[in-house]
Amino acid sequence: MTDCILRQAGTVMGVMATDFRDGKTFPRPGRRAIGKALWLARVFDKARAAANGTIYDYIYPCPMDKGVMERWGVTPEEFDRALKSQTSDDAIYEWLRARTTPEQIEAANQWLLQEKIESLDRQDAEEEVAV
Question: What predicted TM-score, i.e. pTM, was given to this entire model?
Answer without folding.
Answer: 0.85
